[in-house]
Design a protein that fits this description.
mainly alpha
């Protein structure tokens, strides 16, 4: 037992070291050459919003706002080496559940392939340098993955606690957290009195988080944000179709268009369309090539996941789709690739799953 623990620890350290080295390299390259792609070099649009918004329990991502204000993180010190380093370390910690899962369920070769792809992904490398609220969404998805792929009492406790904690900081996790509680209350029966009390306490916190963010959720979905919003798609269709037909088609096409945006579009594209102003894309050819490259790669990952689920279908495999619930608000609200990035480690990891792996073996 001790020798196995030592072996696992050694493998964890080696994989972590490989990840940190490659992610440092990719982050440096992205940071160094970003000016070729974006004249602003390094930007974080939402940071200004979170530092200026009136803060109360109903404001979006209330605890994240408190967090960045308490440490003094703002647009003026975004490029501070101290904050870049802190962001980099927190970003690494959010994917450590996947490194643990590499050791437990993947072969050594697949573990190395996973680490290479994950660490060198340029979009993930860029956002590892920012204290974005989606860092906490990544942590929530990672903890959920830990539970479904390596189910036991320890990962169950760790996952639900960590997911509630993450949701406090990132409201996009609310649907996934409710799904996790549904799975727990539907299938798990062996609660001790103490554990049941703990679960109910976490459930009450979840109700509080949901009730404090629900009004912002409705506001978010109804926003007329960017050139691919529901209202603008409806406006475009009304030029060639009747109002009633255009409204119905807009309801159908908007989620499809927004899913495409989630898979490959940076935030500026969601606002200004594909051909960006020069201050957002100094080289528009690079902008188009990178957009379609991300779209193709991420679409491939998603299609491969769907094939894995439905080729040899088992009802428990549907648990692999539940993390995508964090994208539900984006189907009619604002949509771009930043909302996908918490799912990217998960999407990359599932490409290497063994065919005979039991999902939620011990729920």
């Amino acid at each position: 037992m001790l020798s196995r623990t030592n072996k696992n620890l050694r493998e964890f350290i080696l994989l972590s070291g490989l990840f940190l080295f490659l992610r440092s390299l990719s982050s440096f390259i992205v940071y160094k050459f970003l000016s070729i792609y974006d004249n602003r070099i390094f930007s974080f649009t939402d940071l200004k919003f979170y530092n200026e918004v009136n803060i109360d329990i109903f404001s979006p991502n209330f605890f994240y706002t408190l967090f960045i204000r308490s440490i003094g993180y703002n647009s003026d010190n975004l490029l501070s080496l101290n904050f870049i380093f802190i962001s980099f370390i927190i970003s690494f910690l959010t994917i450590t559940p996947f490194i643990f899962l590499c050791i437990k369920i993947l072969s050594k070769k697949n573990s190395i392939f996973f680490i290479f792809i994950l660490s060198l992904h340029p979009y993930l490398a860029l956002y590892s340098l920012k204290l974005d609220s989606n860092i906490f969404a990544t942590l929530g998805v990672s903890s959920y993955a830990l539970w479904i792929f390596y189910s036991n009492k320890s990962t169950f406790n760790f996952s639900i606690i960590l997911n509630v904690f993450s949701t406090i900081f990132r409201n996009a996790l609310i649907p996934l957290l409710w799904i996790q509680f549904f799975l727990i209350f539907s299938f798990k029966r062996d609660f001790t009195r103490f554990k049941l009390l703990g679960i109910l306490s976490l459930f009450l916190i979840t109700i509080f988080i949901t009730s404090s963010q629900i009004f912002y959720g409705f506001e978010y979905i109804s926003q007329n944000f960017g050139c691919y919003s529901y209202q603008n798609i409806d406006k475009f269709l009304r030029e060639i179709l009747s109002p009633n037909i255009s409204k119905i088609l807009s309801l159908i096409f908007t989620p499809i268009v927004h899913m495409i945006l989630n898979l490959g579009a940076r935030e500026a594209i969601a606002i200004y369309c594909l051909k960006l102003p020069s201050e957002y894309a100094a080289n528009n050819l690079i902008n188009i090539l990178t957009t379609f490259s991300f779209l193709i790669f991420h679409s491939f990952l998603l299609i491969s996941l769907l094939i894995y689920i439905f080729k040899d279908f088992q009802i428990r495999k549907l648990a692999l789709l539940f993390p995508f619930s964090i994208l539900l608000p984006t189907l009619y609200g604002t949509a771009h690739m930043r909302y996908l990035y918490p799912l990217l480690p998960f999407l990359i990891f599932v490409q290497f799953l063994p065919k005979n792996l039991h999902i939620l073996k011990k729920i």
